[in-house]
Amino acid sequence: MRTPVILLSGFLGSGKTTLLLELMKELHARELKPAVLMNELGKADVDGRILSESTPDFPLEKLFDGCICCSKKSEISGALQSLLALAPDVIVVELTGVANPEEVVDAMAEPELLSKLRLHKIVTVLDAEHALEYNSIFSSDRQLVRTLRRQLEVADVIVINKTDLVSPVQLTKVNRMIQKHNERAVLHPSVHAKFDLEGVIRGLDPLHQQAQRSKMLKVVSRGYPLAAIGGSGLPEGREQASFSRIQSIVVPLSAQVPLSLYQLEKLLRSQGSRILRAKGYVSLDGSPEASLIQYAGRRIQRERSGYTGPHYLVVIGYEMDETALLEEWQTSINPNPQNAPQEI
């Protein structure tokens, strides 16, 4: 049983923590047991303290003094595993304002998390008062502009917050800007991040998992990855559907039948720009030992690896044609056609 994950993204000051407070209240009202991972750029725990005081008695991990998508990226896995040990029904990750949600989705494809987590929704909060100014304000920082754009592009739900501070004309312009980057997301105008959360929570149910600790205690990250909990097997079956536009399709591989980089590139490029990233452990060029494969920006890299678990490739993308991906795999690469891809 994989635990669903909700990602909250949005630029600094957009209202993510306010939305997180509303979400926690709604989850408790529906008798769902949440856990939270918060990332703050500074050393001081401001938002975490606010959250703890407003909705006590839930598991909380905090990563300070760095962005979860860069300097803190290596700690995501440990923080998520620590929360998983407490058997929540859902994990909510609040990203810092300059983080790309794709990085957390990427971290969820690590071997120790692959069979334990599934992406449920990506929710991006937008400041209606300032959203139109971001491109001009940060024009000299291309990476930041790209990150803010990706927060919109990959979102399943976009909350247009602080609508009480803008005119109808500006709100129309904000809506047009959103439509330019994401025509598929569900839009929710809001004041103080209040809107009907049914579209975010729909599909969540109590998992009735057994916690690995005797009490549900608050947990504070110590700034280093925690030890892995459990095994690293691949997800089994499709008992839980994803409610996000972003998909992670797991392709099991045979360690006995080595592939080539050319074959892998052919598979990945067959989906065009819909593929955001791919990673996994693959037997290459006649060697039964696994190589770590990383695919991003239509470029593929291989690294030597001491990994000894099941071989697999995770393809991360949005609105992918899973049937086409499967057919391409079966006809040109997969030595074991009966192993169908599995969505997480």
How would you describe what is shown here?
This protein has 344 residues and is α/β, with parallel strands linked by helices. The longest helix has 14 residues, at 16-29. It starts with a strand and ends with a strand. The chain is globular and about 65 Å long. The protein folds into 2 domains: 3-201, 3-Layer(aba) Sandwich (Rossmann fold); 246-343, Hypothetical Protein Yjia, Chain: A,domain 2, CATH 3.30.1220.10. It contains 10 helices and 13 strands. The chain has helices at 16-29, 47-54, 76-84, 101-107, 134-137, 142-153, 168-181, 198-201, 261-269, 322-332, and strands spanning 3-9, 34-39, 60-63, 90-94, 117-127, 157-161, 186-189, 246-252, 275-283, 290-296, 299-304, 312-318, 342-343.
